[in-house]
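Hey Z.,

So I finally got round to the 3-methyl-2-oxobutanoic acid thing we talked about over coffee. Here's the setup:
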Amino acid sequence: MRKITVPEIKATKTNGRKICLITCYDYTSATIVEKSDIEMILIGDSLGMTMLGYEGTIGVTPDDIIHHGKAVRRGAPTTFIIGDMPFGYYNESVEQGIHTANRFMREINCDAIKLEGGRRSAAVVKGIVEAGIPVCGHIGLTPQNSSNMGGFKVQGKSMNAAEELLADAKAIEEAGAFMIMVEGVPVSVCKYLRDNINIPILGIGAGMECEAQALIMHDMLGFYDWVPKFAKKFANLGPQMLDAFNEYHKEVAEGLFPTPEYSYNTKVEGLE
Ligand code: KIV
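And the result:
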């Protein structure tokens, strides 16, 4: 498949095309995403949880994103890749944000970067865009800021909160972002944002009224017992893997594996 471009992503605002994104963190799964119809990959800071076993995203570093991102790029050379800017590596100054974004572009060979925050992040979005790097915003439930939000909670649940989100979305649009992720908001709020900004919305837990959809790979493949309400399990790999591990152990314990089919049966002269 040919890689989708920033102008094609922006055009989804008006042409009715629905596109989607999945997080990805390793070479092997990237090769499978590359073969699929999915247009975009996010090297999410969710790798703190899915790959490194952290409780949240704080603590993820640019080196972590770059380490995983390079592997993903090797597996998915023609998929549009967005690198997720980790907490603490773009909130000190515009220069710090440009520095981290430059590293992602140079070292991962990303197509764009994503960062969290509305009005508070507008200056850094503008600086990175002016440095020539496409930026995807991220508002609503922003995991790096979850402690301020009292946890992973649905955002925008009052008219006042919806207006605040719109002001954030507009600030990110005006700063030059080509798309904005909106996470964990009611369907009506996402529609309100969509109808009042001119860049596509990449929704996650925001319903159908947006141009693009995002999911975390490990949620949608069914690795975990618990997933958030919005994360449909399109497969159930966790239980399937557990069955496979136990079956392997059972066959070894019972002397059923490896049979000649799985062994090198070459006759070695003198040993027979
Ligand atoms: O890091 C991540 O995986 C995200 C999700 C909300 C898609 O930003």
